[in-house]
Amino acid sequence: MSAFVIDLDQFAENLAEVRRRSAPATHMLVVKDDAYAHGLVPIVTRAWAEGVRWFGAFDVRTGIATRKALGEHARIFVWLVSGRDEATAAVAANLDIGVGNAALLEDVAAAAGDATKAARVHLKIDTGLHRNGIRPEEWPAVVDRARGLESRGEVEVVGVWSHIGEASDADDDIARAEFEAAVARARTAGLTPRFLHLAASAAAFARPEFRYDLTRIGAFAYGIRPAGGPSEDELGISPIASLTATVTSVDDQAVRVNLGSLDGLPTALQNRMLVATPAGLRTVTEISATWLSIRAWPGVRIGDAVTVFGGVDAPSATDAAEQLGTIGEEIVLRVSPLVTRTYR
Ligand SMILES: *Cc1c(COP(=O)(O)O)cnc(C)c1O
Fold it and tell me: Within the chain, where are the H helices?
């Protein structure tokens, strides 16, 4: 048996630290990918109780699920919206819509026209990541068009935003200058965006000038520290989830721990990952989709508990990720939805 155990009180402590480090900006809790695999509804419900009022849902489906869980007063931002049908659903659910291209602006305006209410739009400038976002050369035409749609009552441009790499301060500085220029041009067009937002976890904590009005923070709220970056202690956060499993078979050499179901851990972690056992930290010698092996320890019994990552005893998901040159989210997000989430 395995379980993904989520400590909601630790989550509340992380949220308090995130809020403190985001000030004077407001924290938008990012909840994409089922709240980074921690389970959307329990996470947004506790966050709401702790005073979080902005949620970054990513896609419309998650936005609607968050709306259902929290009711009409939550501000819910989605930025993966494609086509007229999704725009219609986003407007109907009263979501704040991130718009990263001119075609979507038209879809949102048309959907709002049908619904006879203005859609709240946050225009996204591409500041160099080239993922999605309005290119600087297109920006003047798009903000002018948005102003026109605003005067017709179809959209209300409440925000301007972008996403940055957070890999080098120099690149981030260039992106921020691009962002500032885009905001100035939007104001020249007559727009009055109330919410400017640029930073995710790393930049929000390290660089006050990146905070603006909203910080879009996921990872640090869940206690996932950046690979190769500052420690949890330095950040003032702790992982809120631990993956636990029990010993299901024992022979002279090896103990097998059942992970329950699919996805599991990357096999590349074989011989490179430590887990917490009743006999202390031990190396994982073999990984399959549903179980892992550990060298046996004296007195081992079926049913002994093993912490695979997280919690007080075991290394964190980011510790494991660093062995592979990846990030903690990649380990956490592999915990199958079929593994029971338990909350305490
Ligand atoms: C995932 C995401 C975030 C949150 O990033 P973290 O590093 O987890 O805090 C913020 N903004 C956007 C656009 C994202 O996709």
Answer: 8-22, 32-36, 40-49, 60-70, 83-92, 102-115, 139-151, 169-188, 201-206, 232-235, 317-324, 328-332
Please give the radius of gyration of the chain, using alpha carbons only, rounded to the nearest integer: 22
- Residues in CB range of 307: below 8 A, 6 or more apart: 242, 243, 244, 275, 276, 313, 314
Of 164, 216, 225, the residue with max ligand 1 atoms within 8 A of its CB, to mutate for a pocket test, comes to 216
What pTM was estimated for this model as a whole?
0.97
Is there a contact between 250 and 296 (Cβ–Cβ < 8 Å)? yes
Q: By alpha-carbon position, which residue is closest to atom 3 of ligand 1? A: 200
pLDDT per position as a tens digit, 323-341: 999 999 999 999 988 899 9
Q: Are 207 and 21 in contact (CB under 8 A)?
A: no
> Of 185, 141, 138, 137, whose CA–CA distance to 160 is shortest?
185
**Distance from the Cα of residue 153 to its chain's centroid:** 32
**Cβ of 32 below 6 Å from ligand 1:** yes
Distance 5 CA to ligand 1 centre (A): 23
- The number of the ligand 1 atom at minimal distance from the alpha carbon of 79 is 13
Q: Tell me if 217 CB under 6 Å of ligand 1.
A: yes
Distance from C-alpha of 139 to C-alpha of 143, rounded to nearest angstrom = 6
Q: What is the pLDDT of residues 39-53, one digit of tens each?
A: 999 999 999 999 999
Task: Indicate the SS3 state at residue 326.
Answer: coil
Atom of ligand 1 nearest to the CA of 202: 7
